[in-house]
Amino acid sequence: MPTRRSVLLAAAGGLALVLAGGAWRVLRRPDTAARPWADAGASTAADVRLDAFRHAVLAPNPHNRQPWIIRLMGQDEAVVSCDLERRLPATDPKDRQIIIGFGCFLELARLAARERGFRVETTPFPEGAPDGRLDHRPVARLRFVRDAGASPDPLFRWILQRRSTKQPFDMARVPSEADLAGIAEAAGSGVRTVGINDPARVARLRAIAWDAWMTEATTPAAHKESVDLMRIGAREIDANPDGISLKGPFIEALAAMGQLTRGNLLDPNGAGFKAGVDRYRPMIAATPAFMWIASDADTATDALAAGYAYVRANLAATARGLAMHPVSQALQEFPEMREHYQKIHAEIGASKLQMLMRVGYGPRVEETPRWPLESRLVA
Ligand SMILES: Cc1cc2nc3c(=O)[nH]c(=O)nc-3n(C[C@H](O)[C@H](O)[C@H](O)COP(=O)(O)O)c2cc1C
User: Fold this and answer.
1) Whose CA is nearest to atom 12 of ligand 1?
2) What pTM was estimated for this model as a whole?
3) Ligand 1 pocket check for 100: Cβ under 6 Å
């Protein structure tokens, strides 16, 4: 995120802090926020549901809000609902993206259960699908059934390695058509998953994705929704392991010197805002391929199905050494986005675009924070 000048200032400030005995502050890392990833890897819970949900909470989800509430029922069932306070009304006015995150969550629960020889019978929206935004009714009811025929899915083993790689990709290594087709196939049925690496088409999508990113950033309510969810530095991340994490020695040093604040992230003329633009512009430009997920209709059930497919695609990309990163701005349904929304649907020729992702070879990145499963379980 930092600009060259802020890097120099941060380096100087970081050095000054180290000399002043503040090394612990600049170098500290979020600790408790990473623990749920280790918990899933080590999970040997007697109750398969706990094992499944320890993996499910690692699902990709918008702004990492982790809106799931899980109620275990009897010996073998669970009801999953949405914490309505964790939605994103400015950028996701129909809760469509939040529902996609639930689809990812449910698919990971199923993969983990299968690994232990259980199939999960899923009833989406058991008390009726929302016609509009989500409400207090459950998103899904699950029944875990021991099943000798439930063979493990090879995607399971990538759950702990999966990431949303918010980094520039290597433009000299273009993902092959065979890999893109393999990922699309692994995503499964119910939606259409497509990948392209044709330079002219990819360039057109990059342009739309960037214009849409800028539109979101300069729409005050939409941008504020993101800034309000930024966790600046390890202390804030550990205290609230969700939202958008800004971390690392430079961030800690900038924050310690008062150069990175919610105020200057919000203000389009502020240093924090400009650093965000300076980070995302080259990132989106360094996109050698795109994939997308589209559906025929725009119901809550379609969004859930898009989530099943999205996390499977993300896992299948990981298995191939490919990085994936959703860029959702042009797909969003708030009024200021209308022009880009229409442009991207026309460009792709889809009736309803659910996900648009950058795909390429990128650096290995750390896992994002999570709330532990126990904090999402209700009696
Ligand atoms: C429906 C959906 C939309 C998303 N849109 C974006 C996006 O526009 N930009 C972005 O950087 N990440 C996006 N993400 C990725 C999330 O930010 C990411 O999943 C979350 O921060 C957790 O990080 P992880 O996937 O690395 O575990 C999206 C994820 C989902 C499921």
Assistant:
1) 326
2) 0.94
3) yes
